[in-house]
Amino acid sequence: MTEVDDANRRTRADRSRIDRRTVLRTAGVGLVGTAAYSSVASAAVRTRRATIQETSESEEEGPVSGEPDEPSDDDRVRWAFDTGRDVRSSPTVVDGTAYAVSGDGVLYTIDAESGEQEWTFDTGVVRSGGDVLYPTPAVVDGTVYVGSDEASTVYAIDAASGEQRWSYEAGSKVLSSPSVVDGTVYVGCNDATVYALTADGGDEVWMYEAERPISASPTVVDGTVYVGSWDGYVYALTAAGGDEVWRYEVTSSVVSSATVAEETVYVGGADTRVHAIDANAGEERWTFDTGGVVGSTPTVADGTVYVGSDDGTVYALGADSGETAWTHETDGEVRSSPTVADDTVLVGSDDGTVYALAADSGDERWAYETDDRVDSSPTVVDGTVYVGGWDGHVYALEAGLEGSSDGSRVLLGTLGHHGDLEWGTGGGADGGGGTGGSDDGVPGFGIGAGLAGVGGAASLLARRLERTAGD
């Protein structure tokens, strides 16, 4: 065992805490050519309802293992675990453990009930500043799969011990999050390539090259891989061999991951539109213009598409028609991707708030304000909302619900999932067809996987695109 392997299983050394922010950052991004767009973040000043008590730390030890932050004056918070750096990764919760990646390059595992740290794994990258993407982990059959930005590596880690099982060095930065279906790991990369690897050993099965970087996650349903690229296309590839089935032109960067329901692919783009695409033919069914970059990944539940936009709005659209059912305005870009549980839509905003909205009307049921942006996408498990924040915390919030996330985003494993997810029950490399449906109205399309580290990524794409794709 190497010193690096041993260090990956130990609690990390002391990390400086992020100062509390009372004024949200203003950010503008611009892309050139086919990826041209601009987005200016609101500088809304919010009164914070949540006052987080500082975690006890010493100069020699970082966040104290087993000692989550204790919130004051807010009964909605079950616990708030401080990583010391911004958390844009979306939590995955499996078998009583929450998994999330922080801006310090560390994968944290947290007891979902108590908020106590279990183990950490260092991906080998600690970066200063805001120019970093944090992939969301996929947890399948006792193994955690996660990518690394600067290390250009995909890791497979034992979920119980935190020991590395294997690693695969890709051709460039791994900006997307792995999808794991039927024994194969699918992941996008900054070298414009989709890689398919064996889940048990990390051996390369196939690779497909697009024209520009791929930060969205491949979503795998019924033997087909759906993935978008900064080159302005959504691709459909065979899961078995990586052969191109069709490509759909968006004309600007595809900055969100796809979700699939009722043989329709839904995806957002830097062209400010939500696109509904025939999953079999690759033809447009409808588009909807939000007025802002759509970096949020859609979720579909009960015939409605829920998605956020950089125009600061959460949209509910008819899945068949694209017609607006309702809108809910926030005070910041909505780059978080919604989840649906018990007829409630949960979503974060750059105004620092986690919103709970009525799924049928968009009326606000409650809102919880953190100390900074919330680009992480929530996952609900047994009535508890797990979500990360730019203030450095992974939160567990009482949602006032009894159920778990059941929209297509989480059921397909896009941007976080929970232990009830039936991985690969109708699609994958064997090309098998789906035989059943799911509670969110996705008959005929089996539960695949499509984790994407896109929550919080849209604001970073402009800086990325200014660089050479193979950096």
TrEMBL record:
Biased segments, Acidic residues type: 56-73
Transmembrane segments: none
Domain Pyrrolo-quinoline quinone repeat: 74-124, 137-211, 271-398
Database matches in InterPro entries: PQQ_b-propeller_rpt (IPR018391), PQQ_rpt_dom (IPR002372), Quinoprotein_ADH-like_sf (IPR011047), TAT_signal (IPR006311), WD40/YVTN_repeat-like_dom_sf (IPR015943)
Region listing for Disordered, in residue ranges: 43-75
Coiled coil feature spans: none
One Pfam family hit: PQQ_2
Cited PANTHER family: CELL SURFACE PROTEIN, OUTER MEMBRANE PROTEIN ASSEMBLY FACTOR BAMB
Name this protein carries in UniProt: PQQ-binding-like beta-propeller repeat protein
